Amino acid sequence: MTPEFIARLHPEPGTARRFAFALMCGVVAEAHGWIFGHLQNRTSSEVGQARFGDALAHCLETVASHAPALVGGDILDAISVPKRHAIDEQACGDYIAWVRAQHLEQEAPLVAYELGVLALGMELPGVMLRSLREVRIDADTTVCETPDGGGYATAFLSSMHPHWGKHAVLCASSDDGERLSLWSLVLLHGGFKIGPGRVIRTASMQEIRDLPASDLLLIYNPASWLGDSRAIRDAFGAPWAILV
């Protein structure tokens, strides 16, 4: 069930969730100074005025220009002038104020990441922290995460091994998996300067086998078509794999 404060954003539940996620990304990016603050100086008194809707659109368009997967084409369409009337701007103002009140720019990346999971309503299993804590990695270790982990295990790995250089490739087989994977990398790297090929869409075993080998494979929330742990490790060809 979509939380009420998210459901109010748009009458279509799926659009409401994706809009909430994209808007949260924009608010957090502005607070960090990663993008221009289109929304930072907007007040609740401006809700209903054309400039508030324009500010919403400019914020999301800016995020999309840096990281298209975070703001899909359906959201850019929903915020366009002809369709903007379906968006509840009062709900947007309340949601923006709520996100700001979390002061995510002062929190660990995992906090903003988990709010992204909440917004999208994507169900992720618990992460086995002991396996991540005990793994031995150095600054140059390359890591790959199975689809559709969404970058969650990688984010925990980074928090437990701050010396690690965050050399990770995240696989995704769904749109939400791709959104969360990219959001994880944005938060871990502190901005949108992420090289190409860091989030890879994969939908078959052959595509998995075509990936460059990594030092460490994180088997977390694997897609059902990947098979069991042994088949997954064989497909990825990683010399070292841990079940997270």
C-alpha geometry: elongated
Poorly predicted ranges (pLDDT <50, ≥5 residues)? none
Largest sheet: spatial strand order: 3-2-1-4-5
Task: Quote the distance from N terminus to C terminus.
Answer: 27 Å
Instruction: Sketch the major β-sheet.
Output: 5 strands, parallel
Proportion in helices: 40-55%
Protein structure class = alpha/beta
**Global mean pLDDT:** 93
Q: Which percent band covers the strand fraction?
A: 5-15%
Number of H/I helices:
11
Count of DSSP E strands?
Answer: 5
What is the CA-based Rg, rounded? 19 Å
Instruction: Tell me the series of helices and strands, N- to C-terminal.
Output: HHHHHHHEHEHEHEHE
Description of the molecule:
The protein is α/β, with parallel strands linked by helices and 244 residues long. The protein is built from 11 helices and 5 strands. The chain has helices at residues 4-7, 13-32, 50-66, 73-78, 89-101, 109-120, 129-134, 152-160, 175-189, 205-209, 229-236; strands at residues 142-145, 167-172, 199-201, 216-219, 240-243. The chain has a 5-stranded parallel β-sheet with strand order 3-2-1-4-5, with helices on both faces. Strand 2, helix 9 and strand 3 (199-201) form a beta-alpha-beta unit. Helix 2 runs antiparallel to helix 6 (109-120). The longest helix has 20 residues, at 13-32.
Short description:
By secondary structure, the chain is of the alpha/beta class.
Distinctive features:
244 residues; 5 strands; 47% helix; elongated
